[in-house]
Amino acid sequence: MTFQNPLEHEGIAKSKAQSARNYWLTISRMESRHCSLGRQFHCRPSDSRLGGQLYCHPSMADGGCDDESFHHPQSGVAQQQLRFRPSLSCRRKGFVMPRTIFLLVLSFALCGLTCTARAQNPEISGITGITKGKADLTVPPNTPPGKVWRYGGGPIFQVGPRTAGFINGIQEDGTGNIDFGVGMDAILFDDLSKIGDAKPIPISRYEKGVHRDFGKTTTVIGIIVGGFVPFGAKQADGLPYPNAGTGFGIGYVILYAVDERGGFDYRETKKHSFQLFQFSYDGKDFLILGKEDVERNDLLPNSDWVFGGYSLNSAIPDGQDFLFAMSAGKKSDDHDDRAVAGVTRWRHGAKGWRPISFTPVTRRNEIWSEPSLIRDMDGSLLMSARSDGSLGSRVAFDVAVWRSTDNGKSWKQVIYRRKCRSESPVSINQAADGTPFVAANLPPLMRRRDILCYWPLNDSRTDLGELRIARDLRGEFGPAPSGSWWRADHPTSAIVRLADGAWHGLLMYRIIDNGEIEGSAKPAPQTGCYVEEVHSRGPATEVWKF
Question: Does residue 47 have a pLDDT over 60?
Answer without folding.
Answer: no
